[in-house]
Request: fold
Amino acid sequence: MIRTKSVIAAAVLLTVPSLAHADIDTAASHAIIYDYDTGDVLFCKDCDQQMTPSSMSKLMTVELLLQRLKDGRLKPTDTMHVSEDAWRQGQKDNESKMWVQINSDISIDDLLKGIIVQSGGDACIVVADSISGSESAFAELENKRAKELGLTNSHFANATGMPDEGQLMSARDLAMLSAHIIREYPQYYSYFAIKDFTWSNIKQGNRNELLYENVGVDGLKTGHTEAGGYGMVTSALRGGRRLIVVVNGLDKMKTRAEESRHLLDAGYRDFKRYDLVAANGQVGSADVWGGTQDTVALRVKDPVAVTMAQDSRPDMKVTLRYQGPVKAPVAEGAQVGTLTVSVPNKPDTIVPVYAAQAVSSSGILGKFVLGVQTLLGRKAS
Reply:
């Protein structure tokens, strides 16, 4: 039979305020506030709807480059050749550019800065040509990588973010991609905070206006096209807590900075992270049948935390579930059940729980005694 226990719920309810929707709004047509550590979505405005991501989609071009640096296929000092196609991209009036020179060779380290700081579409073509041979082949690689990363509302047609029917991303996908980059490539994440970069004797400033303010912002990418409006992916670290904000569809560069700051402030002000269980923490016990002991302690492997609105009213519930009694022998580390964290207005968080220690079988004599006890119990009933 399935057994449920509110093992830690009583303690949690005494100390954790319950959840209600915070009163947040934005002029952006698409927006999300994403908690980096827990993966919780604190605010969503059409955040799963596909949109024109403009240059924010260059984060996928950057990710594919960083992936190859991490696994050793490329080194920062390796160079990539500037084709005529890449150079011509730099001649377009409606595209940001690094100002690459035709038939030159540029180090990967400089290309990264040209894409991240200067939003160089020409630098993106250099990368696409060098990795895949053409931009169309690179787009296929982007789509494959998007599936691997679980970006379910993204599709790529180019490396630059130039308007195209097939160039689509959601705000949630951009937040998830940003979190992945921060987590997997920490040695390169500092590039997103670089305020200016000079190439071909042309100095360009980072278009992320919040980098110049003392608000904890250290990345990531801006975007603008007529089709998509003004957008920005922003990440900030305050008090050891990181939030990621995505906005898009705004009418001015100034407005995208204002809306991003507004959502960051709301995320830090109205929401708080609650650490419920530490890594390897015990969450209760399960009854054991036929073992050398009657119960087995249960633990989680990873920390269990949830971010919720501080002024919420309905109660959060934490419930331990397992199929029991658990039949011995029980191996240490075997999954026994799940811990479910239920918060109103959010999907349940379901975490596997494991046996904290091994429980041996009680042997033939023990099984005989248990059999007799079970038989007597049935007769008595």
Remarks:
- Residues 7-21 have pLDDT under 50 and may be disordered.
- Residues 338 and 352 are 4 Å apart (CA to CA).
